[in-house]
Structures are given as structure tokens and as C-alpha cells.
Amino acid sequence: MTMIDQARGAAAGGLVTLQPEGWPAPKGYANGMMGRGRVVFVGGQIGWDAEGRFADGMVGQIAQALRNILAVLAAAGAGPQHIARLTWYVTDMEAYRANLKPLGRAYREVMGAHYPAMAVMRVVELVEREALVEIEATAVLPE
Q1: Which residue, 20, 71, 100, 111, could crosslink 80 as a Cys pair with Cβ 3.0–4.6 Å?
Q2: C-alpha distances in angstroms, 90 versus 33, 49, 57, 69, 117?
């Protein structure tokens, strides 16, 4: 797909994955996304449910944080296919790396096969002491 084709797709209201020519294909994320429409910014979501109970472990908390993101997006009439960017903050990068396979399965169970632009970074701690991860999202809904 050429950049012109990608721009047409974004103008039509859908998100388009941006992949520079000659770059290796990323696994589990996109290098960039392009879209046009209403933008939804989802504040950092952590791995607790509506009653404030934390899921067990890093993978459980990631799955719950992603479900929380989808709940916020649903309030805007959006779904995972509208997510253009996810920013992950983890308190233990080694635990994150050690759980990549189960994390990938949990991600796909919640988000499907949609892989937006992503960044993952380690932080010293999060506001909620039990939180192991916090994830922010940016979504674009077609006009």
C-alpha cells in the first residue's frame, strides 16, 4: 500500500497502519497509525475492576487494564479497532519480558488482532501501590 493509498484510507475515516518501506514488520504493534475523525483520549487505566479489586499478576492486570480501556471507549461508541496508540507503564520490565507469550494471548483475547502504535516503559511506581501496569489509549472514531 502506498502512502497515497494510506492517506485515502485515513480520509475515509478508518485507521491506517504506517509501515516505512524496507523496515522489518513489527510484532504485536505498529510503527505508526494515521486516521481522521473524533479523537478520544483515555486516561491511564490500571488492572482493577469496577469494585477496585486488582487482578492477579502482571498478565491479569494488563488484561483488566485493557478491558477498562474498552469500557471507556464504549462510552464514546468506540471499540478496539479505533485505538491508534497505547502507552504502557510497567513497574517491572523483567516480569513484562518474562510473560510476553501469555501477555500476547491475553492481549488478543481482549483486543483481537488490532495492533496500534505502542510504547512500553518502566516506571519506578504507580499511584496505586498494588498496580503493576497503567495503560493510556488514544482512539480515532470516523467522522
Answers
A1: 111
A2: 23, 18, 12, 16, 17
| Residue 89, C-alpha cell as written in the block | 507503564
pLDDT at position 12 is: 44
Q: Rounded mean pLDDT of 75-95?
A: 97
Give dist(CA 138, CA 122) in Å, integer. Answer: 20
- In the chain, the largest separation of any two C-alpha atoms, in whole Å, equals 47
Q: Which residue has the higher pLDDT, 5 or 32?
A: 32
CB 46 within 8 A of CB 61: yes
Residue whose grid cell is 480520509? 11
Buried b (16+ CB within 10 A) or exposed e, 69-78: bbebbeeeeb
H-run or E-run covering 135:
strand 133-141
DSSP sequence for 66-111:
HHHHHHHHHHTT--GGGEEEEEEEES-HHHHHHTHHHHHHHHHHHH
